[in-house]
Specification:
By secondary structure, the chain is of the alpha+beta class. Helix content is about 20%, strand content about 15%.
């Protein structure tokens, strides 16, 4: 029986804040024109092809003002002046998306379209067809 492998402890990378590629801001200290992707999305904006211009540091790094934040909970900040309005899909694109979702939500056996995606890759059909019961009418779209 093989021995369980021990995880190697990673070396903590300590990069001085002055050597970081992007400027870093603590929460509540960033300028008004810098927003996260979620804040841009709430304003119906997109980065517009531009990359992040700064880093929003995580709450753990407040105690280490001299080191750069490398934690995965940090956030990228985008300039609102470079942002563009989000694109709206055309009718043809919306139709194509609806057809793709219909293919994932329709049972090939009973031809009912459900409100959720079916496990077609593993089961090949909906649960009512597989187990032999009648589905409740609020789970699928009427034909």
């Amino acid at each position: 029986m093989p021995r369980p492998r021990r995880k190697r402890r990673r070396e903590a990378r300590r990069i001085p804040r002055s050597d970081a590629h992007l400027p870093e801001y603590d929460r509540g200290d960033c300028p008004e024109n810098l927003l996260t992707r979620r804040q841009l999305r709430d304003r119906r904006l997109a980065p517009g092809g531009h990359g992040p211009v700064a880093v929003l540091r995580c709450p753990l790094c407040v105690a280490r003002p001299d080191l750069a934040c490398l934690h995965p909970v940090r956030a990228w900040l985008y300039d609102i002046r470079l942002a563009r309005p989000k694109r709206t899909p055309t009718l043809a694109q919306e139709r194509a998306l609806d057809q793709a979702m219909a293919a994932r939500q329709t049972c090939p056996r009973c031809r009912r379209r459900y409100h959720f995606c079916l496990p077609l890759r593993t089961q090949g059909q909906c649960d009512p067809c597989l187990r032999g019961y009648t589905p409740s009418p609020d789970t699928y779209l009427p034909a």
